[in-house]
Amino acid sequence: MTDTLTVSVLGTGIMGAPMARNLAEAGHTVRVWNRTPDKAAPLAADGAHVAATPAEAVQGADVVLTMLYDGAAALEVMREAAPALRPGTAWVQSTTAGIGAVGDLAAFARDHELVFYDAPVLGTRQPAEAGQLLVLAAGPSESRETVTPVFDAVGARTVWTGDDGAAGTATRLKLVANSWVIAATNAVGEVLALSKALDVNPQSFFDAIDGGPLDMGYLRVKAGLILDDRLSPAQFAVTTAVKDARLIVEAGERHGIRLDVAAASAERLARAAAQGHGDEDMAAAYFASFDGDQSA
Asked: Could you list the residue range(s) of the whole structural domain that residue 146 is in?
């Protein structure tokens, strides 16, 4: 079998667009669709066919990749694509959908005889553009040769979590990882907000922890976005982080645990979005510490 595939990418936002671009650069035939056509149109210059409907986008596809807002959006779009889906097509479901939605998506795949891969990714805009995402994947081993070229084009590494995509093991790992990312991002914002309130130069804090166990590259990166006013374009938007934080809280509740930090993070992010920072990088949760307009 050839490694050159026809891949349909449904959803060309912050993550989907660079993933589609990297697939085209790898030599695959790429067909794209986005609810807001203006977000998909630039991909024509990269050789992608820009479709007017999900059904048009999936015609002749070997692999369909969904990178949409949430599980409900992924299911809705796949229902729109259903008339043109071929039995046996591999569906790489990369939307962060949450535990509750994975079963519904897998059921749709089963009903339409699709080969379902639960395959969320770790990374933001920059690694997506560089093709350096970490792919977390679960799905049948006998068909992995079909999706491996897709994962290789968009990611630096693939971590397989199981043979049954319907079990949602990849999504579960993604939620665990995102719980750390979201908590760390909010902690960065609070450190800078407290520094401002106490009239402490943030550099004094960075100097104090430099090179020690409390230091971390992620702290430096997110703090830099805030301090240098580089929150747009977003690496990972506040509104999407709100959704993911709520999925994490929901997952905890389903399994009988309280996730107080995740719940507080969701509230902070939602407050930042309400202040007008929804399309900015999730580091803009920093502004939730203040009542009025602020800068770092």
From this structure: 6-167
